[in-house]
Amino acid sequence: MTFQPPEHHPAFEEYCETIFELAEDGVQVKQARIAERLEVAPPSVSEMIHRMVDVGLVKLAEGQIELTSKGTDLATQVVRRHRLAECFLTDVLGLSWTEAHHEAGKWEHIISGSVEEAMRNILDDPTTCPHGNPIPGSNYRAPEDAVVLSNLADGESFVVERITEELEFADGLLEYFEKAELKPGSEAQIKGITPAGIRKVEINGKNLEIDLFASERILVTSL
């Protein structure tokens, strides 16, 4: 069997994925946000965006960057393979959330269609990654009553639904949440809120603190 190289350069895939995920999390997709997420210099982002406009992957609209239909197709393929890889790496190989996130960032560019299908089969066609983010093309249905954790009051109990992609890039947070067992499906209760907006949470007999930045990006449903 002859190896088929990817249709698009990995850099194009990385940028389309980033634009998709920023929009998915409700973040304004501007060059500065892309530079922050990818940890590259703003001039490099500007150059890449212009190249992507030229090849029809993105368009500029009222100061924001949007994926074209071609760019969306590429982004959903990369995001789907990344999140499937995270499931495989955690559920089958037993890697931690943090390790799986970094490794999946490499796997997403080399997974073929046949390997993707095989992974879906062995994983029983998952609808979300380990952090609850939807896998594009799956039968995922978002909970209608999901809200961000910061909306809940002291004493309220909740079920964790989703740790949004933005938090996966915050240093140490994935490891912190995994050790505390703050994961989709876990039940917890708010045990106090500080003036700075820090939520004191009890989960499975463990206590942890979640700052305002994180609590505004964790989706939950009330019990």
Overview of the structural elements:
The chain starts with 9 loop residues before the first helix and ends with a strand. Strand 6 and strand 7 form a beta hairpin. The chain is globular, with a radius of gyration of 18 Å. The chain has a six-stranded antiparallel beta sheet. A two-stranded antiparallel sheet has the order 1-2. Helices cover 43% and strands 17% of the residues. The N terminus is likely disordered. The longest helix has 24 residues. It folds into two domains: 140 residues, Winged helix-like DNA-binding domain superfamily/Winged helix DNA-binding domain (Arc Repressor Mutant, subunit A); 76 residues, Ferrous iron transport protein A (FeoA) (SH3 type barrels, Roll). Helix 1 packs across helix 2. The chain has nine helices and eight strands. It is α+β, with helices and mostly antiparallel strands and 223 residues long.
Mind sketching the topology for me?
Blueprint: H1 10-24, H2 31-38, H3 42-54, E1 58-61, E2 64-67, H4 69-92, H5 97-107, H6 113-122, E3 147-148, E4 157-163, H7 165-168, H8 173-179, E5 187-193, E6 199-203, E7 206-210, H9 212-215, E8 218-222
Antiparallel strand pairs: 1-2, 3-8, 4-5, 4-8, 5-6, 6-7
Helix pairs in contact: 1-2, 1-4, 2-3, 4-5
